[in-house]
Write a structure and sequence with these properties.
Blueprint: H1 14-25, H2 32-43, H3 47-59, E1 63-68, E2 71-76, H4 80-96, H5 100-110, H6 115-129
Antiparallel strand pairs: 1-2
Length: 136
Amino acid sequence: MSNAPVHHPANISDAESHVMEVLWRAPGPVVAEQVVVALAESQHWQTATVKTLLNRLLKKEAIAAEKDGRRFLYRAVLPRETWLARESEDLVQRLFGGRIAPLVAHFSSRRKLSQADLGELRRLIDRLDNGGRDGQ
């Protein structure tokens, strides 16, 4: 077992998360212009804005960049699952004191859960009752 410290990148902002989603979905490294095109419909960001967000993500060590001629190729380093787990834990801790039941109660009181949602929750509870974790 390694004694090296585990690095946790700084929190990813909402805007940065849009860029990360593009990088996570990409089959390989992408240039900034590809990120701009991917976000054009939903965000309408200029190239300079995307490059600023990419630079912030580089400083946070959530992504990496390689020089390719006169341009840079960007790829995600932070796994989506790691980010999602941290964001989920932060949300539950901040809004519901770390308790899951009030979270589910809140959402079920605000919107009708579908039969598929209820079935998924029942399967999750059954797995947890049988010693599984995180739906495994």
